[in-house]
Design brief:
Number of domains of chain B: 2
Largest sheet of chain A: none
Helix content of chain A: over 70%
Distance between the termini of chain A: 54 Å
Radius of gyration of chain B: 20 Å
Strand content of chain A: under 5%
Number of domains of chain A: 1
Number of helices of chain A: 3
Order of helices and strands of chain B: HHHHHH
CATH topology of the largest domain in chain B: Four Helix Bundle (Hemerythrin (Met), subunit A)
CATH architecture of chain A: Orthogonal Bundle
Distance between the termini of chain B: 62 Å
Oligomer: heterodimer
Number of helices of chain B: 6
CATH class of chain A: Mainly Alpha
Largest interface: A-B, 70 and 82 residues
CATH superfamily of the largest domain in chain B: NADH-ubiquinone/plastoquinone oxidoreductase chain 6, subunit NuoJ
Shape of chain B: globular
Strand content of chain B: under 5%
Structural class of chain B: mainly alpha
Number of strands of chain B: 0
Structural class of chain A: mainly alpha
CATH topology of chain A: Helix Hairpins
C-alpha cells in the first residue's frame, strides 16, 4: 500500500473540513469541521509513524486528542453562552463583538 | 487484491462519504451522526496501520465523549433544519471552489513525491506497552503539562457557562 493513498485521503478529509467551515453558518457545524481537520492530520501522522517505525508520531496524535478535548469543552461553553445571549448560533450575528 | 486492500478502500469510501454528509446535511443532529461514522472509519484506518491503542482512544474520546458533548449541546438548543441559517449560493460555491483548489494543489504537489511504501509487516509500536514507555520517559513533561491544560479548560468552561 503506497503511502500516497493515505496522503490523498487525509488531504481530502482536510479539504472537506475547510469547505464545511467556509460554507456553513451554524457555529456548531463549523466546530465539527475543525474536529474533522484535526482528525485528518492525526491520520497522516499515524501513517507516517508506520512508515518510519517511530513511536513519537503516535504520542503527538495522543496530545492532539488531549488538546482537542480541552478545546471542545471551552468552545461549546462559549457557544452555549452565545446561544443564551442572542438565541441563535448563526455566526453572522456575532460579526460585531459589541452586543 | 487482498483483505487489506478491500478494507482500506471500504474505510476510505466510508470516511469521505460520511465527511461529505457532515457538511451537506441540513439537520445538525444528522451532521453529528455522520461525524461519528467518520471517526469510526478513521479508527479502522488506525487498526490497519497497527496503531491499536490510538484506535481505541479515538473511539472512546472522539466518538464517545466529544460527540456526546456535541449532541447534548444541540439538544439544549432545539435546532431544526428549517431554522438552520444558510449562506448564499455564491458564498457556498466560493467555499467549495476554495477547498477543491486547495486539494488539487496539494495533490499535484505531492503526486510525484518519492516516499517509501508502507510494508505489510506488522509492527508493535502501537501497543499500549511501547507507547506508555515512551510517553512516561521521553514525553513525561508534556504529559504533566497537559493535565494543567485540562484543569484550566475545565475551570474555564465552568466559568464561561455559569449564569451571572
Amino acid at each position: 500500500m503506497p503511502i500516497h493513498y493515505y496522503l490523498f485521503l487525509s488531504m481530502a478529509l482536510f479539504s472537506i473540513g475547510i469547505m464545511g467551515t467556509l460554507m456553513r453558518r451554524n457555529a456548531i457545524i463549523i466546530f465539527m469541521c475543525i474536529e474533522l481537520m484535526l482528525n485528518a492530520v492525526n491520520l497522516l501522522l499515524v501513517a507516517f509513524s508506520k512508515m518510519y517505525v517511530d513511536t513519537s508520531a503516535q504520542i503527538f496524535v495522543f496530545f492532539i486528542m488531549v488538546v482537542a478535548a480541552a478545546e471542545v469543552a471551552v468552545g461549546l461553553a462559549v457557544i452555549v453562552m452565545m446561544y443564551r445571549k442572542v438565541h441563535s448560533v448563526d455566526i453572522n450575528i456575532l460579526n460585531r463583538l459589541k452586543h | 487484491m487482498g483483505i487489506y486492500e478491500i478494507l482500506f478502500w471500504f474505510l476510505t469510501v466510508m470516511a469521505i462519504g460520511c465527511a461529505l454528509g457532515v457538511i451537506l446535511s441540513r439537520n445538525p443532529v444528522n451532521s453529528v451522526l455522520f461525524l461519528i461514522a467518520t471517526f469510526f472509519a478513521i479508527s479502522g484506518h488506525y487498526l490497519l496501520l497497527n496503531a491499536q491503542f490510538l484506535a481505541i482512544v479515538n473511539v472512546i474520546v472522539y466518538a464517545g465523549a466529544i460527540m456526546v458533548l456535541f449532541l447534548f449541546v444541540i439538544m439544549l438548543m432545539n435546532l431544526n433544519a428549517d431554522v438552520e441559517p444558510q449562506k448564499s449560493r455564491l458564498v457556498q460555491l466560493a467555499g467549495m471552489i476554495a477547498g477543491g483548489v486547495l486539494f488539487l494543489v496539494v495533490l499535484a504537489a505531492l503526486r510525484t513525491a518519492t516516499l517509501s511504501s508502507l510494508d505489510k509487516a506488522s509492527t508493535d509500536i502501537g501497543l499500549i506497552k511501547n507507547l506508555g514507555r515512551v510517553l512516561f520517559t521521553q514525553y513525561v513533561l508534556p504529559f504533566e503539562i497537559s493535565s494543567v491544560l485540562f484543569l484550566s479548560a475545565m475551570i474555564g468552561a465552568i466559568v464561561i457557562g455559569k449564569k451571572e
